[in-house]
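Predict structure. Chain length: 253.
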Amino acid sequence: MNTLIWVVLPYACLIVFVAGHVWRWRHDQFGWTTHTSQLLESRLLRLGSPLFHLGAFGVIGGHAMGLLVPAPVTEALGVPEHVYHAVAVWGGALTGTVLVAGLVLLIARRLVSGRIRRVTTRMDKVLYAFLAAMVVLGMTATVATNLLGDGYDYRETIAVWFRGIFWFQPHTELMTGAPLVYQLHAVGGFLFLALWPFTRLVHVWSAPLAYLWRPYVVYRARRGPAPAPGPTPDAVRSSSSGKAEQTLHVRHG
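Prediction complete.
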């Protein structure tokens, strides 16, 4: 069971993450967007979206630093362990709070606005449920365990296991002794990666960098009188119907 959870599941989720993005790009490029609903409601979105994205960037940065940077590296850089721990805990609590505030506003927006609720897809609901569960688990591990509780040094266990996955040397014994909230958070994180390619989150990989070097759009003033407007579609259809009737009368005649 330990091998299934801490070895097979992570690799399976990573394979789905990569293959899912390839499939989505090849078969659903028109759906590769944020599916924005700003035109339907903008008041809550104007506040909730920046909070959510700022909090998400902070949380992702904190996870990358905690999981990918070994403790000997920070010690070699002159950062004592207690300083790193204080920055990680308080920084995680702050960015997590900002993320929670933004997510609550985005979910409330989908619940209170009838127009937004009608355009919310089933995959959107699954995505928000996963995000809420991950945030709850992460805040529990940060605040309840490290800030208010006795604390847990995940850099000596979970971080080592996580880096071992990419070196094809995952140490499952390091995860079996981790607190349950950390285990659930780790499993949920990989499942979230497997879900990612089939949601609107794919827009993360489509940063509009081409705007930096694309040619300018040139607008020129029109000189002289404006041209007469063309016939409307109804007029064209009426004219075509009249000509068809005349042709039919001539043939019958």
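Summary: The chain is about 70% helix and 0% strand.
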